[in-house]
């Protein structure tokens, strides 16, 4: 279970809080979607929960573990799929995955067999020995995903895992995430694909200006908004139609 209590983040030099006293509980084995316009605070929230950046105030725990008290155990418990590709372009898919696996203490035949099993599941077996810089966006996203799940995390954070990929890759990624979830993994993901989130998530939260404006099961949220036929209608009704450009 993830328990978030009054979590806030103000970046150095920034005028406003990017995440504002946010409270949320995510249950074990839930697929939870964080949705919101550009700049809403989704990445900042995920980055704090993944211990990539420090909160300004507030606290959170993951399966009872806190960064302050159980740093190493927490690292083994979570997997992180960042928005940017965290891969070495001149290394092969296998070499990249071997590197990331060893960072989690995996080695030898066990690691080798894990890498091959995951590559097979994500349709990449025949590209194991090709360099990442020859891969399409969809292939890189799938390798990015494998790199974060080799150590079998109990909780997986994904920041827009299907951005910029074709429908086929998106389908393989979502199906693989559902399998992981069936096997017990809790999933927290951000996305701008509202149709995808509606079908994929058990619950979602719509975030705007650093805080949750509504949360619940997609069907319940749609039913609760007059005239809404899908999650996109709910999203636009609650966050408005104005553009969120910022520089
Ligand atoms: N390193 C940083 N320094 C200062 N401000 C930042 C930094 N990273 C993000 N911000 C600001 O924090 C706010 C939230 O940004 P964040 O990237 O978390 O939003 P987001 O919901 O993930 O947006 P997107 O959908 O565009 O990825 C924005 O106003 C952004 O400009």
Keywords:
Rossmann fold, globular, binds adenosine-5'-triphosphate, alpha/beta, ABC-2 type transport system ATP-binding protein, 247 residues, ABC_transporter-like_ATP-bd, 3-stranded antiparallel sheet
Q: SSE layout and pairings?
A:
Blueprint: E1 2-9, E2 19-26, E3 31-35, H1 42-49, E4 57-62, H2 71-77, E5 78-81, H3 93-103, H4 108-121, H5 137-149, E6 155-159, H6 167-182, E7 186-190, H7 194-200, E8 203-208, E9 211-216, H8 218-224, H9 231-239
Parallel strand pairs: 3-7, 3-8, 5-6, 6-7
Antiparallel strand pairs: 1-2, 1-4, 8-9
Keywords: ATP-binding, Nucleotide-binding
Protein name: ABC-2 type transport system ATP-binding protein
Pfam family, one: ABC_tran
Question: How would you portray this structure in words?
Answer:
- One of its GO terms (molecular function) is ATP hydrolysis activity.
- Pfam families: ABC_tran.
- Keywords: ATP-binding, Nucleotide-binding.
- Residues 2-234 form the ABC transporter domain.
- With 247 residues, the chain is of the alpha/beta class.
- It has one domain: P-loop containing nucleotide triphosphate hydrolases (Rossmann fold).
- The protein is built from nine helices and nine strands.
- The chain has helices at residues 42-49, 71-77, 93-103, 108-121, 137-149, 167-182, 194-200, 218-224, 231-239; strands at 2-9, 19-26, 31-35, 57-62, 78-81, 155-159, 186-190, 203-208, 211-216.
- Strands 5-6-7-3-8-9 form a six-stranded mixed β-sheet, with helices on both faces. Strands 2-1-4 form a three-stranded antiparallel β-sheet, with helices on one face.
- A hairpin with a 2-residue loop joins β8 and β9.
- α3 (93-103) packs across α4 (108-121), α3 (93-103) runs parallel beside α5 and α5 runs parallel beside α6 (167-182).
- The longest helix has 16 residues, at 167-182.
- It is globular and about 55 Å long.
- The structure holds adenosine-5'-triphosphate (ATP).
- Adenosine-5'-triphosphate binds at residues 11, 14, 18, 36, 38-44, 246.
């Amino acid at each position: 279970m993830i328990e978030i209590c009054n979590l806030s983040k103000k970046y150095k030099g920034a005028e406003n809080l990017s995440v504002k006293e946010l409270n949320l509980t995510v249950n074990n084995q839930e697929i939870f979607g964080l949705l919101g316009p550009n700049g809403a605070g989704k990445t900042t929230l995920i980055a704090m929960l993944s211990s990539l950046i420090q909160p300004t105030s507030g606290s959170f725990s993951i399966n009872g573990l806190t960064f302050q008290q159980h740093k190493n155990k927490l690292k083994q418990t979570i997997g992180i799929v960042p928005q940017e590709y965290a891969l070495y372009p001149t290394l092969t898919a296998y070499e990249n995955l071997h590197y990331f696996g060893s960072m989690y203490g995996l080695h030898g035949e066990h690691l080798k067999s894990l890498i091959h099993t995951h590559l097979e599941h994500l349709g990449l077996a025949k590209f194991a020995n090709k360099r990442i810089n020859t891969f399409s966006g969809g292939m890189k996203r799938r390798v990015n995903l494998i790199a974060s799940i080799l150590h079998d995390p109990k909780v997986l954070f994904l920041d827009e895992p299907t951005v910029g990929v074709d429908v086929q890759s998106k389908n393989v990624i979502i199906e693989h995430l559902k399998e992981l979830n069936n096997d017990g993994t809790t999933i927290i993901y951000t996305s701008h694909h509202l149709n995808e989130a509606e079908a994929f998530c058990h619950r979602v939260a719509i975030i705007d200006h650093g805080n949750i404006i509504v949360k619940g099961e997609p069907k319940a949220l749609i039913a609760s908004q007059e005239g809404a036929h899908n999650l996109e209608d709910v999203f636009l009704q609650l966050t408005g139609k104005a553009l969120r450009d910022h520089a």
